């Protein structure tokens, strides 16, 4: 072995061969001067290679420590992996491979490039802080358009995103946007060959739109009622009805629904409610509801002089916008940013006007959180509580006695320590009357008479 090493021609890569064949110089004969000289040269090269490898290992270790503390020990293995040739690039490659193998055994594999893992890997479950007794309540969430059903219309996609972010919050605003989106769906619909609109449209076209909207945010009661009416109207078409005729009938019916149950209903309710305001009254309301705003502006337009008290929802802060609108119209306004001092404010009012999201079959009111507190304080003070609500928001099939059955969790007020419900339930005994667009008793009907009111609306011949 010594003869082969000494006989190597000059200019040949003796250092590299020595690094491979003589990793431990102690094995060479101690009394060979030539061997000793070669051993000194090989040891220096080997030390230089080791220094490079250690330097590369230290750099890798710093990167790994920044990326994840769990992978820091793996950075030390890069020095051993790069001990063969000591090349800087190879040391990095070996370190990456070791990290990749180790990362598969971990729950969250760190990035090979040393970057932090993407946020969805460590994202906290948004419902983790909700107690089990409230786990049945839904919560609005943004559904990426890439995850939506392929048959969802672009107009419906836009409405779903707006509802998930509460850009569309009011029940009637959500209903109107949904009906207009469905109108576009019908216009772009073409019945497949061998099918009929009355049999194909609902299960294959309309239902995917509804499912997507429900995933973004639970449907309000007005949307549920309108969808049932739409499906019932579609089922009335004969199987042999021409597609153009059926589509034209659906579009006309949707236009009629928007005009009669939304536009004209708002006008009729505001007119009926404004008649109940007298000169010198003080009208108290909670938050910001469009029907209350229209009513007060209508009364002002009629020339009535009255005051308004707005108690705001401290989370929504919509009452501030209402107070500004009323003041610009020349109505004296007293504004309170929260429910503090509620009793004296309610006691000084003549009437309390409240807007509702829905009214159940037993007469209970489904409205933004805080409405029940205002209604109870008013009834205890002997002040009339009048609810303004369209009949499209009435639910004739379900009853409610608390806020735990039909509700939503506020996604903006949901943390690991607390959460907030969007709505509360006001029992019918705290409601003096309900004003709707339906002409019955001057438009002011008891909350308990909702079922009779709906039956008479459908069949005017009923006494």
TrEMBL record:
Composition bias type Basic and acidic residues, residue spans: 51-66
InterPro entries: IF-2B-related, IF_2B-like_C, NagB/RpiA_transferase-like
Quaternary structure (record): Component of the translation initiation factor 2B (eIF2B) complex which is a heterodecamer of two sets of five different subunits: alpha, beta, gamma, delta and epsilon. Subunits alpha, beta and delta comprise a regulatory subcomplex and subunits epsilon and gamma comprise a catalytic subcomplex. Within the complex, the hexameric regulatory complex resides at the center, with the two heterodimeric catalytic subcomplexes bound on opposite sides.
Protein name per its UniProtKB record: Translation initiation factor eIF2B subunit delta
Disordered: annotated segments: 1-121
Major location category of this protein: cytoplasm
Family: Belongs to the eIF-2B alpha/beta/delta subunits family.
GO MF annotation list: transferase activity; translation initiation factor activity
Subcellular location: Cytoplasm, Cytosol
Family matches, as PANTHER family: TRANSLATION INITIATION FACTOR EIF-2B, TRANSLATION INITIATION FACTOR EIF-2B SUBUNIT DELTA
Keyword annotations: Cytoplasm, Initiation factor, Protein biosynthesis, Transferase
Ranges of Low complexity composition bias in the record: 22-48, 67-84
GO cellular component: cytosol
Domain of life: Eukaryota
């Amino acid at each position: 072995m010594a003869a082969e090493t000494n006989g190597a021609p000059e200019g040949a890569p003796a250092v590299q061969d020595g690094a491979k064949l003589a990793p431990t110089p102690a094995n060479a004969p101690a009394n060979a001067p030539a061997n000793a000289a070669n051993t000194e040269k090989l040891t220096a090269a080997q030390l230089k290679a080791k220094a490079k490898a250690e330097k590369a290992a230290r750099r890798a270790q710093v990167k790994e420590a920044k990326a994840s503390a769990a992978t820091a020990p793996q950075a030390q293995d890069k020095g051993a992996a790069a001990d063969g040739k000591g090349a800087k690039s190879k040391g990095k490659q070996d370190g990456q491979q070791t990290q990749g193998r180790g990362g598969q055994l971990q729950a969250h594999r760190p990035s090979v490039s040393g970057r932090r893992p993407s946020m969805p890997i460590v994202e906290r479950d948004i419902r983790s802080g909700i107690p089990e007794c409230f786990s049945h309540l839904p919560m609005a969430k943004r559904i990426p358009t890439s995850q939506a059903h392929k048959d969802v219309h672009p107009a419906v996609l836009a409405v779903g995103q707006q509802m998930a972010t509460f850009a569309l919050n009011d029940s009637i605003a959500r209903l109107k946007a949904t009906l207009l989106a469905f109108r576009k769906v019908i216009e772009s619909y073409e019945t497949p060959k061998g099918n009929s609109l009355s049999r194909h449209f609902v299960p294959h076209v309309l239902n995917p739109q509804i499912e997507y909207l429900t995933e973004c945010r639970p449907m309000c009661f007005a949307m549920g009622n309108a969808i049932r009416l739409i499906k019932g109207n579609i089922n009335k078409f004969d199987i042999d009805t021409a597609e153009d005729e059926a589509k034209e009938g659906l579009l006309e019916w949707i236009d009629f629904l928007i005009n009669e149950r939304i536009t004209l209903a708002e006008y009729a309710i505001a007119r009926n409610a404004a008649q109940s305001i007298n000169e010198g009254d003080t009208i108290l309301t909670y938050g910001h509801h469009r029907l209350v705003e229209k009513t007060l502006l209508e009364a002002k337009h009629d020339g009535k002089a009255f005051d308004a008290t707005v108690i705001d929802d401290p989370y929504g802060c919509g009452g501030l916008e209402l107070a500004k609108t009323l003041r610009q119209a020349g109505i004296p306004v007293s504004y309170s940013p929260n429910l503090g001092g509620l009793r004296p404010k309610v006691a000084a009012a003549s009437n309390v006007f409240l807007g509702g999201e829905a009214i159940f079959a037993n007469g209970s009111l489904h409205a933004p959180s805080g409405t029940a507190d205002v209604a109870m304080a008013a009834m205890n003070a002997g002040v009339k509580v009048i609810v303004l609500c369209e009949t499209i928001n009435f639910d004739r099939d379900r009853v409610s006695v608390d806020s735990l059955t039909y509700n939503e969790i506020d996604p903006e007020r949901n943390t690991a320590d607390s959460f907030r419900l969007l709505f509360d339930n006001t029992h019918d005994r705290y409601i003096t009357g309900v004003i709707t667009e339906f002409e019955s008793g001057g438009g002011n009907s008891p909350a308990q008479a909702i079922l009779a009111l709906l039956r008479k609306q459908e069949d005017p011949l009923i006494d």
